[in-house]
Design a protein that fits this description.
Blueprint: H1 2-10, E1 15-20, E2 24-30, E3 36-43, E4 47-49, E5 52-54, H2 57-79, E6 88-93, E7 99-101, H3 120-130, H4 139-148, E8 159-161, H5 163-172, E9 176-178, H6 179-182, E10 188-189, E11 194-195, H7 197-207, H8 216-219, E12 222-224, H9 235-241, E13 257-258, H10 259-266, E14 274-279, E15 283-288, E16 301-304, E17 310-316, H11 321-336, H12 343-354, E18 365-367, E19 384-386, H13 395-420, E20 427-431, H14 440-449, E21 453-455, H15 462-475, H16 483-492, E22 498-500, H17 504-519, H18 521-529
Parallel strand pairs: 1-6, 6-13, 9-12, 14-20, 20-21
Antiparallel strand pairs: 1-2, 2-3, 4-5, 7-8, 10-11, 14-15, 15-17, 16-17, 18-19, 21-22
Length: 532
Protein backbone atom coordinates (compact mmCIF):
# COMPACT_ATOMS: atom_id res chain seq x y z
CA UNK A 1 0.00 0.00 0.00
CA UNK A 2 2.78 2.44 0.90
CA UNK A 3 4.52 1.70 -2.41
CA UNK A 4 1.28 2.53 -4.27
CA UNK A 5 0.96 5.81 -2.39
CA UNK A 6 4.61 6.60 -3.02
CA UNK A 7 4.09 6.17 -6.76
CA UNK A 8 1.01 8.42 -6.62
CA UNK A 9 3.11 11.17 -5.01
CA UNK A 10 6.04 10.69 -7.36
CA UNK A 11 3.81 10.73 -10.46
CA UNK A 12 2.25 14.04 -9.37
CA UNK A 13 -1.26 12.66 -8.88
CA UNK A 14 -1.59 13.67 -5.21
CA UNK A 15 -3.72 16.74 -4.51
CA UNK A 16 -2.99 19.35 -1.84
CA UNK A 17 -5.43 21.31 0.27
CA UNK A 18 -4.28 24.07 2.66
CA UNK A 19 -6.50 25.95 5.08
CA UNK A 20 -5.59 28.96 7.24
CA UNK A 21 -7.60 28.46 10.42
CA UNK A 22 -7.69 30.94 13.28
CA UNK A 23 -5.23 28.93 15.41
CA UNK A 24 -3.72 26.46 12.94
CA UNK A 25 -2.68 26.29 9.32
CA UNK A 26 -3.27 22.76 8.07
CA UNK A 27 -2.22 20.95 4.89
CA UNK A 28 -3.79 17.68 3.71
CA UNK A 29 -2.49 15.60 0.80
CA UNK A 30 -5.06 13.27 -0.77
CA UNK A 31 -4.84 10.45 -3.30
CA UNK A 32 -7.03 10.08 -6.45
CA UNK A 33 -9.58 8.24 -4.27
CA UNK A 34 -9.86 11.43 -2.12
CA UNK A 35 -8.35 9.74 0.93
CA UNK A 36 -5.83 11.67 3.08
CA UNK A 37 -2.31 10.28 2.74
CA UNK A 38 -0.22 12.93 4.54
CA UNK A 39 -0.67 16.03 6.66
CA UNK A 40 1.25 19.06 7.87
CA UNK A 41 0.40 21.89 10.24
CA UNK A 42 1.59 25.11 11.82
CA UNK A 43 0.24 26.67 15.02
CA UNK A 44 -0.26 30.43 15.01
CA UNK A 45 -2.13 33.13 16.92
CA UNK A 46 -3.59 36.49 15.99
CA UNK A 47 -2.18 39.67 17.55
CA UNK A 48 -3.99 42.73 18.86
CA UNK A 49 -2.26 45.69 17.16
CA UNK A 50 -3.55 49.24 17.67
CA UNK A 51 -6.84 47.81 18.92
CA UNK A 52 -7.42 45.51 15.92
CA UNK A 53 -6.92 41.75 15.55
CA UNK A 54 -4.42 40.85 12.82
CA UNK A 55 -1.90 38.39 11.44
CA UNK A 56 1.18 39.97 9.88
CA UNK A 57 2.21 39.28 6.29
CA UNK A 58 5.38 37.68 7.71
CA UNK A 59 3.28 35.41 9.94
CA UNK A 60 1.14 34.38 6.96
CA UNK A 61 4.14 33.33 4.86
CA UNK A 62 6.21 31.88 7.69
CA UNK A 63 3.16 29.86 8.70
CA UNK A 64 2.37 28.65 5.20
CA UNK A 65 5.98 27.69 4.52
CA UNK A 66 6.33 25.89 7.86
CA UNK A 67 3.06 24.04 7.27
CA UNK A 68 4.20 22.89 3.82
CA UNK A 69 7.63 21.96 5.21
CA UNK A 70 5.91 19.86 7.88
CA UNK A 71 3.89 18.14 5.13
CA UNK A 72 7.10 17.39 3.18
CA UNK A 73 8.68 15.92 6.32
CA UNK A 74 5.58 13.78 6.86
CA UNK A 75 5.75 12.50 3.26
CA UNK A 76 9.47 11.71 3.61
CA UNK A 77 8.93 9.88 6.89
CA UNK A 78 6.00 7.81 5.64
CA UNK A 79 6.94 7.17 2.03
CA UNK A 80 10.63 8.02 1.67
CA UNK A 81 10.07 10.40 -1.20
CA UNK A 82 9.83 14.11 -2.09
CA UNK A 83 6.93 16.14 -3.48
CA UNK A 84 8.06 17.42 -6.88
CA UNK A 85 4.68 18.20 -8.44
CA UNK A 86 0.99 17.86 -7.65
CA UNK A 87 -2.26 17.13 -9.44
CA UNK A 88 -3.88 20.30 -8.08
CA UNK A 89 -3.79 22.71 -5.13
CA UNK A 90 -6.56 24.43 -3.19
CA UNK A 91 -6.20 27.34 -0.75
CA UNK A 92 -8.78 28.12 1.90
CA UNK A 93 -8.90 30.44 4.92
CA UNK A 94 -11.14 31.99 7.53
CA UNK A 95 -13.64 34.18 5.72
CA UNK A 96 -14.27 37.92 5.68
CA UNK A 97 -11.85 40.55 6.94
CA UNK A 98 -9.94 43.22 5.10
CA UNK A 99 -6.75 43.06 3.04
CA UNK A 100 -6.29 46.22 0.96
CA UNK A 101 -3.38 46.75 -1.46
CA UNK A 102 -2.00 49.66 -3.48
CA UNK A 103 -0.73 49.87 -7.06
CA UNK A 104 2.62 48.41 -5.96
CA UNK A 105 0.86 45.39 -4.45
CA UNK A 106 1.81 46.58 -0.95
CA UNK A 107 -0.64 46.02 1.90
CA UNK A 108 -1.94 49.41 3.03
CA UNK A 109 -2.94 48.55 6.62
CA UNK A 110 -2.40 45.37 8.64
CA UNK A 111 -4.82 42.55 7.75
CA UNK A 112 -8.05 43.07 9.71
CA UNK A 113 -9.55 39.68 10.56
CA UNK A 114 -13.17 38.58 10.91
CA UNK A 115 -12.79 38.89 14.67
CA UNK A 116 -12.80 42.70 14.66
CA UNK A 117 -16.06 44.37 15.68
CA UNK A 118 -15.17 48.02 15.06
CA UNK A 119 -17.44 48.15 12.00
CA UNK A 120 -20.81 48.66 13.71
CA UNK A 121 -21.61 52.01 12.12
CA UNK A 122 -20.72 50.77 8.63
CA UNK A 123 -22.57 47.45 8.93
CA UNK A 124 -25.74 49.19 10.16
CA UNK A 125 -25.64 51.80 7.37
CA UNK A 126 -24.99 49.17 4.68
CA UNK A 127 -27.72 46.85 5.99
CA UNK A 128 -30.20 49.71 5.77
CA UNK A 129 -29.06 50.84 2.32
CA UNK A 130 -28.92 47.31 0.85
CA UNK A 131 -32.05 46.00 2.65
CA UNK A 132 -29.84 42.99 3.35
CA UNK A 133 -28.13 41.90 6.57
CA UNK A 134 -24.47 42.96 6.34
CA UNK A 135 -22.52 41.51 9.32
CA UNK A 136 -19.73 43.33 11.13
CA UNK A 137 -17.06 40.95 9.84
CA UNK A 138 -17.82 41.20 6.11
CA UNK A 139 -15.19 42.84 3.92
CA UNK A 140 -17.58 45.51 2.67
CA UNK A 141 -18.23 46.54 6.30
CA UNK A 142 -14.49 46.92 6.92
CA UNK A 143 -14.08 48.92 3.72
CA UNK A 144 -16.97 51.29 4.42
CA UNK A 145 -15.88 51.78 8.04
CA UNK A 146 -12.40 52.79 6.83
CA UNK A 147 -14.07 55.27 4.47
CA UNK A 148 -16.34 56.65 7.22
CA UNK A 149 -13.25 57.05 9.42
CA UNK A 150 -11.44 58.94 6.61
CA UNK A 151 -8.45 56.65 6.98
CA UNK A 152 -5.52 57.99 4.94
CA UNK A 153 -5.07 54.82 2.88
CA UNK A 154 -8.55 54.60 1.35
CA UNK A 155 -7.77 56.56 -1.83
CA UNK A 156 -4.81 54.30 -2.66
CA UNK A 157 -6.72 50.99 -2.78
CA UNK A 158 -6.33 49.07 -6.04
CA UNK A 159 -7.23 45.59 -4.76
CA UNK A 160 -9.32 44.28 -1.86
CA UNK A 161 -9.41 40.60 -0.96
CA UNK A 162 -9.65 37.99 1.80
CA UNK A 163 -6.84 35.90 3.30
CA UNK A 164 -7.54 32.97 0.95
CA UNK A 165 -7.72 35.33 -2.02
CA UNK A 166 -4.41 36.94 -1.01
CA UNK A 167 -2.49 33.67 -0.67
CA UNK A 168 -3.94 32.40 -3.96
CA UNK A 169 -3.01 35.65 -5.74
CA UNK A 170 0.57 35.40 -4.53
CA UNK A 171 0.86 31.77 -5.69
CA UNK A 172 -0.78 32.22 -9.11
CA UNK A 173 -0.86 35.92 -9.97
CA UNK A 174 -4.67 35.60 -10.34
CA UNK A 175 -7.00 38.04 -8.55
CA UNK A 176 -9.92 35.65 -8.13
CA UNK A 177 -12.10 34.23 -5.35
CA UNK A 178 -14.46 31.28 -4.99
CA UNK A 179 -18.10 32.36 -4.82
CA UNK A 180 -18.50 31.11 -1.24
CA UNK A 181 -15.68 33.31 0.04
CA UNK A 182 -16.79 36.17 -2.23
CA UNK A 183 -20.25 36.01 -0.64
CA UNK A 184 -18.61 37.11 2.64
CA UNK A 185 -17.19 40.20 0.94
CA UNK A 186 -20.36 41.50 -0.73
CA UNK A 187 -23.81 39.96 -1.40
CA UNK A 188 -24.11 37.66 -4.41
CA UNK A 189 -26.82 37.83 -7.08
CA UNK A 190 -28.26 34.32 -7.48
CA UNK A 191 -29.12 34.97 -11.13
CA UNK A 192 -25.66 36.11 -12.25
CA UNK A 193 -23.55 34.18 -9.70
CA UNK A 194 -21.58 37.40 -9.25
CA UNK A 195 -21.54 40.35 -6.86
CA UNK A 196 -24.94 42.04 -6.77
CA UNK A 197 -24.80 44.85 -9.34
CA UNK A 198 -27.62 46.60 -7.48
CA UNK A 199 -25.63 46.67 -4.25
CA UNK A 200 -22.44 47.72 -6.02
CA UNK A 201 -24.39 50.70 -7.40
CA UNK A 202 -25.84 51.50 -3.97
CA UNK A 203 -22.36 51.43 -2.47
CA UNK A 204 -21.03 53.74 -5.20
CA UNK A 205 -23.81 56.21 -4.38
CA UNK A 206 -22.95 56.07 -0.67
CA UNK A 207 -19.27 56.86 -1.25
CA UNK A 208 -19.72 59.33 -4.15
CA UNK A 209 -19.22 62.40 -1.92
CA UNK A 210 -15.73 61.11 -1.03
CA UNK A 211 -14.63 61.35 -4.71
CA UNK A 212 -12.29 58.35 -4.41
CA UNK A 213 -10.04 57.33 -7.31
CA UNK A 214 -11.49 53.82 -7.63
CA UNK A 215 -14.79 52.05 -8.26
CA UNK A 216 -15.83 49.07 -6.16
CA UNK A 217 -16.20 46.67 -9.12
CA UNK A 218 -12.58 47.37 -10.12
CA UNK A 219 -10.98 46.51 -6.78
CA UNK A 220 -12.80 43.25 -5.97
CA UNK A 221 -11.56 39.75 -6.96
CA UNK A 222 -13.24 38.02 -9.90
CA UNK A 223 -15.86 35.52 -8.71
CA UNK A 224 -15.42 31.86 -9.75
CA UNK A 225 -17.54 28.75 -9.19
CA UNK A 226 -16.25 25.39 -7.97
CA UNK A 227 -14.71 23.47 -10.86
CA UNK A 228 -13.54 26.57 -12.75
CA UNK A 229 -9.82 26.98 -13.31
CA UNK A 230 -8.32 29.64 -11.10
CA UNK A 231 -4.80 29.74 -12.52
CA UNK A 232 -1.55 27.84 -12.16
CA UNK A 233 1.30 27.84 -9.68
CA UNK A 234 3.89 30.33 -10.94
CA UNK A 235 7.67 29.88 -10.52
CA UNK A 236 7.57 32.65 -7.89
CA UNK A 237 4.58 31.02 -6.19
CA UNK A 238 6.30 27.64 -6.09
CA UNK A 239 9.31 29.19 -4.33
CA UNK A 240 7.04 30.99 -1.89
CA UNK A 241 5.22 27.79 -0.96
CA UNK A 242 8.17 25.38 -0.96
CA UNK A 243 11.32 27.14 0.19
CA UNK A 244 13.30 23.92 -0.41
CA UNK A 245 12.83 24.44 -4.15
CA UNK A 246 11.56 20.93 -4.95
CA UNK A 247 8.02 21.85 -5.99
CA UNK A 248 7.72 22.64 -9.70
CA UNK A 249 5.42 25.36 -11.10
CA UNK A 250 2.49 24.72 -13.42
CA UNK A 251 0.16 23.01 -10.93
CA UNK A 252 -3.51 24.03 -11.46
CA UNK A 253 -5.35 25.68 -8.56
CA UNK A 254 -9.06 25.63 -7.83
CA UNK A 255 -10.86 28.83 -6.76
CA UNK A 256 -9.77 29.86 -3.24
CA UNK A 257 -12.56 29.36 -0.71
CA UNK A 258 -13.58 30.32 2.79
CA UNK A 259 -13.75 27.97 5.76
CA UNK A 260 -17.56 27.88 5.65
CA UNK A 261 -17.49 26.49 2.12
CA UNK A 262 -14.85 23.89 2.86
CA UNK A 263 -16.84 22.79 5.92
CA UNK A 264 -19.86 22.25 3.67
CA UNK A 265 -17.79 20.17 1.26
CA UNK A 266 -16.15 18.12 4.04
CA UNK A 267 -19.60 17.19 5.41
CA UNK A 268 -21.24 16.62 2.01
CA UNK A 269 -23.65 19.49 2.67
CA UNK A 270 -23.68 21.50 -0.58
CA UNK A 271 -26.93 20.08 -1.96
CA UNK A 272 -30.12 22.09 -1.40
CA UNK A 273 -32.08 20.96 1.72
CA UNK A 274 -28.88 19.82 3.45
CA UNK A 275 -26.93 21.56 6.18
CA UNK A 276 -24.04 21.27 8.58
CA UNK A 277 -23.17 22.48 12.05
CA UNK A 278 -19.57 23.18 12.99
CA UNK A 279 -19.11 23.24 16.75
CA UNK A 280 -15.79 24.00 18.39
CA UNK A 281 -14.46 27.20 19.98
CA UNK A 282 -17.19 29.00 18.05
CA UNK A 283 -20.07 27.44 16.16
CA UNK A 284 -22.05 28.03 13.02
CA UNK A 285 -24.79 26.31 11.07
CA UNK A 286 -25.10 26.38 7.30
CA UNK A 287 -28.46 25.45 5.74
CA UNK A 288 -28.51 25.25 1.92
CA UNK A 289 -31.73 26.86 0.73
CA UNK A 290 -33.97 26.18 -2.24
CA UNK A 291 -34.63 29.93 -2.53
CA UNK A 292 -33.71 33.19 -0.82
CA UNK A 293 -35.33 34.11 2.50
CA UNK A 294 -38.46 36.28 2.43
CA UNK A 295 -36.70 39.15 4.22
CA UNK A 296 -33.36 39.97 5.89
CA UNK A 297 -32.73 38.92 9.49
CA UNK A 298 -30.02 40.42 11.67
CA UNK A 299 -29.27 36.99 13.15
CA UNK A 300 -28.79 35.27 9.78
CA UNK A 301 -26.02 35.80 7.23
CA UNK A 302 -26.70 34.95 3.60
CA UNK A 303 -23.71 33.35 1.86
CA UNK A 304 -23.35 30.63 -0.79
CA UNK A 305 -22.04 27.13 -1.36
CA UNK A 306 -18.86 26.85 -3.47
CA UNK A 307 -21.11 26.23 -6.48
CA UNK A 308 -23.37 29.20 -5.77
CA UNK A 309 -26.52 27.96 -3.97
CA UNK A 310 -27.89 30.33 -1.31
CA UNK A 311 -26.98 29.42 2.27
CA UNK A 312 -28.44 30.71 5.54
CA UNK A 313 -25.66 30.95 8.10
CA UNK A 314 -26.13 31.37 11.85
CA UNK A 315 -22.76 32.28 13.37
CA UNK A 316 -22.17 32.10 17.13
CA UNK A 317 -19.04 33.48 18.77
CA UNK A 318 -19.16 31.02 21.69
CA UNK A 319 -19.47 27.26 21.88
CA UNK A 320 -17.10 24.96 23.82
CA UNK A 321 -14.71 27.32 25.64
CA UNK A 322 -16.76 27.69 28.85
CA UNK A 323 -17.76 24.02 28.76
CA UNK A 324 -14.07 23.06 28.53
CA UNK A 325 -13.30 25.35 31.49
CA UNK A 326 -15.80 23.45 33.65
CA UNK A 327 -14.33 20.12 32.49
CA UNK A 328 -10.87 21.40 33.50
CA UNK A 329 -12.26 22.14 36.97
CA UNK A 330 -13.36 18.52 37.34
CA UNK A 331 -9.93 17.45 36.08
CA UNK A 332 -8.29 19.50 38.87
CA UNK A 333 -10.55 17.83 41.44
CA UNK A 334 -9.58 14.41 40.13
CA UNK A 335 -5.90 15.35 40.40
CA UNK A 336 -6.44 16.54 43.99
CA UNK A 337 -7.73 13.07 44.79
CA UNK A 338 -4.59 11.58 43.26
CA UNK A 339 -6.56 9.81 40.54
CA UNK A 340 -4.77 9.54 37.14
CA UNK A 341 -6.41 11.77 34.56
CA UNK A 342 -7.42 10.62 31.08
CA UNK A 343 -9.13 13.61 29.49
CA UNK A 344 -11.03 11.46 26.99
CA UNK A 345 -12.44 9.54 29.94
CA UNK A 346 -13.29 12.75 31.84
CA UNK A 347 -15.16 14.17 28.83
CA UNK A 348 -16.84 10.84 28.13
CA UNK A 349 -18.04 10.28 31.71
CA UNK A 350 -19.36 13.82 32.20
CA UNK A 351 -20.97 14.14 28.78
CA UNK A 352 -22.73 10.78 29.03
CA UNK A 353 -23.82 11.51 32.60
CA UNK A 354 -25.52 14.65 31.27
CA UNK A 355 -27.96 12.44 29.37
CA UNK A 356 -29.25 11.14 32.72
CA UNK A 357 -30.37 14.65 33.68
CA UNK A 358 -33.83 16.13 33.27
CA UNK A 359 -34.75 17.05 29.69
CA UNK A 360 -35.18 20.70 30.78
CA UNK A 361 -31.99 20.61 32.93
CA UNK A 362 -34.11 20.90 36.07
CA UNK A 363 -34.43 24.66 35.56
CA UNK A 364 -30.66 25.32 35.50
CA UNK A 365 -29.32 27.81 32.93
CA UNK A 366 -25.78 28.43 31.64
CA UNK A 367 -24.49 31.31 29.53
CA UNK A 368 -21.22 30.38 27.81
CA UNK A 369 -20.39 33.94 26.71
CA UNK A 370 -16.61 34.16 26.85
CA UNK A 371 -17.01 36.96 24.29
CA UNK A 372 -19.96 38.95 22.97
CA UNK A 373 -22.76 37.24 21.07
CA UNK A 374 -24.32 39.20 18.18
CA UNK A 375 -27.28 36.80 17.80
CA UNK A 376 -28.50 37.73 21.29
CA UNK A 377 -27.38 41.36 20.97
CA UNK A 378 -24.44 41.36 23.39
CA UNK A 379 -21.24 43.18 22.43
CA UNK A 380 -19.39 41.61 25.40
CA UNK A 381 -19.84 38.41 27.34
CA UNK A 382 -19.57 37.06 30.89
CA UNK A 383 -19.72 33.30 31.47
CA UNK A 384 -22.54 32.67 33.95
CA UNK A 385 -24.27 29.76 35.62
CA UNK A 386 -27.74 30.61 36.94
CA UNK A 387 -30.11 28.69 39.22
CA UNK A 388 -32.86 29.34 41.71
CA UNK A 389 -33.14 27.69 45.12
CA UNK A 390 -35.88 25.35 43.90
CA UNK A 391 -34.11 24.08 40.77
CA UNK A 392 -32.85 20.49 40.61
CA UNK A 393 -29.14 21.11 41.12
CA UNK A 394 -27.19 17.92 40.49
CA UNK A 395 -24.23 16.94 38.33
CA UNK A 396 -26.29 15.49 35.48
CA UNK A 397 -28.44 18.62 35.17
CA UNK A 398 -25.40 20.86 35.56
CA UNK A 399 -23.56 19.16 32.68
CA UNK A 400 -26.69 19.03 30.56
CA UNK A 401 -27.29 22.76 31.05
CA UNK A 402 -23.76 23.54 29.92
CA UNK A 403 -24.08 21.28 26.88
CA UNK A 404 -27.40 22.95 26.03
CA UNK A 405 -25.68 26.34 26.38
CA UNK A 406 -23.06 25.34 23.80
CA UNK A 407 -25.78 25.21 21.10
CA UNK A 408 -28.39 27.51 22.68
CA UNK A 409 -27.62 30.56 20.56
CA UNK A 410 -27.49 28.34 17.49
CA UNK A 411 -31.03 27.21 18.26
CA UNK A 412 -32.30 30.79 18.62
CA UNK A 413 -31.01 31.65 15.14
CA UNK A 414 -32.22 28.45 13.50
CA UNK A 415 -35.68 28.74 15.02
CA UNK A 416 -36.20 31.68 12.64
CA UNK A 417 -35.39 29.46 9.65
CA UNK A 418 -37.53 26.50 10.69
CA UNK A 419 -40.44 28.24 12.44
CA UNK A 420 -40.79 31.54 10.57
CA UNK A 421 -39.37 30.79 7.12
CA UNK A 422 -40.56 27.13 7.16
CA UNK A 423 -37.26 25.94 5.68
CA UNK A 424 -37.14 22.20 4.91
CA UNK A 425 -33.99 20.18 5.55
CA UNK A 426 -33.40 16.53 4.68
CA UNK A 427 -30.05 16.07 6.43
CA UNK A 428 -27.88 18.05 8.86
CA UNK A 429 -24.32 16.88 9.56
CA UNK A 430 -22.40 17.82 12.71
CA UNK A 431 -18.63 18.16 12.88
CA UNK A 432 -16.06 19.67 15.23
CA UNK A 433 -14.72 19.07 18.72
CA UNK A 434 -18.12 19.13 20.46
CA UNK A 435 -19.00 15.83 18.75
CA UNK A 436 -15.86 13.97 19.79
CA UNK A 437 -17.71 12.08 22.57
CA UNK A 438 -19.93 9.90 20.40
CA UNK A 439 -23.66 10.40 20.51
CA UNK A 440 -23.99 13.00 23.26
CA UNK A 441 -23.73 16.42 21.61
CA UNK A 442 -25.31 14.85 18.53
CA UNK A 443 -28.43 13.97 20.55
CA UNK A 444 -28.52 17.42 22.16
CA UNK A 445 -28.18 19.23 18.82
CA UNK A 446 -30.95 17.03 17.39
CA UNK A 447 -33.19 18.20 20.24
CA UNK A 448 -32.16 21.84 19.78
CA UNK A 449 -32.89 21.89 16.04
CA UNK A 450 -35.69 19.28 16.17
CA UNK A 451 -33.97 17.55 13.27
CA UNK A 452 -32.01 14.31 12.76
CA UNK A 453 -28.25 14.94 13.03
CA UNK A 454 -25.61 12.83 11.29
CA UNK A 455 -21.94 12.64 12.19
CA UNK A 456 -19.38 11.17 9.78
CA UNK A 457 -15.89 9.96 10.67
CA UNK A 458 -14.50 11.89 7.68
CA UNK A 459 -15.88 15.18 9.00
CA UNK A 460 -12.96 15.25 11.41
CA UNK A 461 -10.60 15.79 8.48
CA UNK A 462 -11.79 19.37 8.41
CA UNK A 463 -11.52 22.26 5.99
CA UNK A 464 -8.10 21.40 4.58
CA UNK A 465 -9.61 18.14 3.34
CA UNK A 466 -12.62 20.11 2.05
CA UNK A 467 -10.48 22.41 -0.10
CA UNK A 468 -8.44 19.41 -1.30
CA UNK A 469 -11.74 17.89 -2.49
CA UNK A 470 -12.53 21.11 -4.38
CA UNK A 471 -9.09 20.90 -6.00
CA UNK A 472 -9.82 17.27 -6.93
CA UNK A 473 -13.17 18.36 -8.39
CA UNK A 474 -11.24 20.69 -10.70
CA UNK A 475 -9.04 17.96 -12.22
CA UNK A 476 -10.72 14.59 -11.55
CA UNK A 477 -14.31 15.26 -12.60
CA UNK A 478 -14.24 13.28 -15.83
CA UNK A 479 -18.03 12.79 -15.81
CA UNK A 480 -18.61 16.58 -15.59
CA UNK A 481 -20.86 16.10 -12.55
CA UNK A 482 -22.16 19.03 -10.57
CA UNK A 483 -20.46 19.47 -7.20
CA UNK A 484 -23.22 17.84 -5.12
CA UNK A 485 -23.33 14.75 -7.36
CA UNK A 486 -19.53 14.56 -7.47
CA UNK A 487 -19.38 14.50 -3.67
CA UNK A 488 -22.19 11.92 -3.48
CA UNK A 489 -20.74 9.58 -6.10
CA UNK A 490 -16.98 10.06 -5.98
CA UNK A 491 -16.19 11.02 -2.39
CA UNK A 492 -18.83 9.87 0.09
CA UNK A 493 -20.32 7.02 -1.98
CA UNK A 494 -23.47 6.67 0.09
CA UNK A 495 -21.82 7.28 3.47
CA UNK A 496 -24.24 9.51 5.35
CA UNK A 497 -22.71 8.78 8.75
CA UNK A 498 -24.45 7.76 11.96
CA UNK A 499 -27.78 9.53 12.44
CA UNK A 500 -29.58 10.36 15.69
CA UNK A 501 -33.18 11.57 15.53
CA UNK A 502 -34.67 13.84 18.22
CA UNK A 503 -37.08 12.42 20.78
CA UNK A 504 -40.25 14.36 21.67
CA UNK A 505 -39.14 14.48 25.32
CA UNK A 506 -35.72 15.96 24.44
CA UNK A 507 -37.27 18.53 22.07
CA UNK A 508 -39.80 19.65 24.67
CA UNK A 509 -37.05 19.81 27.32
CA UNK A 510 -34.76 21.93 25.15
CA UNK A 511 -37.64 24.24 24.26
CA UNK A 512 -38.37 24.75 27.97
CA UNK A 513 -34.67 25.39 28.62
CA UNK A 514 -34.38 27.96 25.83
CA UNK A 515 -37.42 29.89 27.09
CA UNK A 516 -35.75 30.11 30.53
CA UNK A 517 -32.51 31.06 28.75
CA UNK A 518 -34.11 33.92 26.82
CA UNK A 519 -35.96 35.13 29.91
CA UNK A 520 -32.67 35.22 31.82
CA UNK A 521 -30.71 37.24 29.23
CA UNK A 522 -31.16 40.46 31.29
CA UNK A 523 -28.99 38.75 33.96
CA UNK A 524 -26.22 38.38 31.36
CA UNK A 525 -26.70 41.99 30.26
CA UNK A 526 -26.44 43.19 33.87
CA UNK A 527 -23.20 41.20 34.32
CA UNK A 528 -21.73 42.87 31.23
CA UNK A 529 -22.79 46.32 32.47
CA UNK A 530 -21.11 45.71 35.82
CA UNK A 531 -17.70 45.51 34.01
CA UNK A 532 -16.73 42.62 36.27
Amino acid sequence: MKSDTKSIIESGKAILGIEFGSTRIKAVLIDPENKPIAQGSHIWENQLVDGLWTYSIEAIWNGLQDCYSDLRANVKKQYGTEIETLGAIGISAMMHGYMAFNANDEILVPFRTWRNTNTGMAAAALSEAFVFNIPLRWSISHLYQAILNDEPHINDITYLTTLAGYAHWQLTGERVLGIGDASGMLPIDQATKNYSAEMVDKFENLIAPKKLKWHLADILPKVLLAGENAGFLTPEGAKKLDVSGHLKPGVPLCPPEGDAGTGMVATNAVKQRTGNVSAGTSSFSMIVLEKDLSKPYEMIDMVTTPDGSPVAMVHCNNCTSDLNAWISLFKEYQELLGVPVDMNEVFGKLYNHALEGDADCGGLIAYNYISGEPVTGLAEGRPLFVRSANDKFNLANFMRANLYASVGVLKIGNDILFNEEKIKVDRITGHGGLFKTKGVAQRILAAALNSPISVMETAGEGGAWGIALLAAYLVNNAKKLNLADYLDECVFAGNTGVEIAPTPEDVAGFNAYIENYKAGLPIEEAAVRSKR
